[in-house]
Amino acid sequence: MIGSEINELIQYLAKIPGLGPRSGRRAALHLIKHKDRLLKPLADAMLKVDESIRSCVQCGNLDTQDPCLVCQDPRRDNTIICVVEQVADLWALERTGCFHGRYHILGGTLSAIDGIGPEDLKIQGLIERVHRIQVQEIILALNATVEGQTTAHYIMERLKLAEVKITALAHGVPVGGELDYLDDGTLSTALASRRSFSETS
Question: What is the mean pLDDT of residues 114-134?
């Protein structure tokens, strides 16, 4: 019914989280209808990102610079590190504009079922950062899932000998909720109301 090039575009769009085959077709058709205004600029932007994207050596954020702009910001508090699972979580917290410390992206959570162990995440890098610089507080901003809480407990055990305060997000983050899907107000409240991680266990 349609050319292979258009079908290929639909298939790739359908793989984007939140779309699927039907939404992929609608998105492809919309892009094609607005070829000059949307399709070409989008293609150019994607090419630029592909050529310039970098993974920050310090926190793991994705940016066109390494270290990323967040890590380069001299106004940030080096004594507080907010630990998150994925880049999307960092971006979600940054949208709130209420956190002014540093970040550390783990790259996922511990999961025995999926065969993901501590060596598969950037936990050791976090431990080394804590001991290398004078960190006073670690905020475990992990998703309120079984895997997220298991990972948080593991990190807390690894940092037991370090003289660092460990806190977790509080009010407003529902059990099973993911940070990237929460609104800015909820995230702001959770950050402001954080408490000792041992109190949340």
Answer: 93
Q: What is the pTM of this model?
A: 0.77
161-195 per-position pLDDT tens digit: 888 999 987 655 665 667 787 777 677 767 776 76
Alpha-carbon span 91 to 69, nearest angstrom: 12
Tell me how far apart the alpha carbons of residues 65 and 71 are, in angstroms, rounded to a whole number. Answer: 10
Do 181 and 96 lie in one domain? The reply is yes
The pLDDT assigned to 174 comes to 62
Is 162 a domain residue?
A: yes
Structure tokens at 149: 């809480």
For tokens 């950037």, name the residue.
122
Residue 77 pLDDT > 70: yes
Domain span at residue 114?
62-200
Angle at 179 between CA 173 and CA 180, to 5 degrees: 145
**For residue 36, how many C-alpha atoms fall within 13 Å in the half-sphere facing its CB?**
0
Q: State the virtual CA torsion across 194, 195, 198, 201 in degrees, nearest 10.
A: -50
User: 72: which 2 tokens?
Assistant: 């380069």
Mark whether 103 and 26 lie in a shared domain: no
Shared domain check, 10 and 105? no
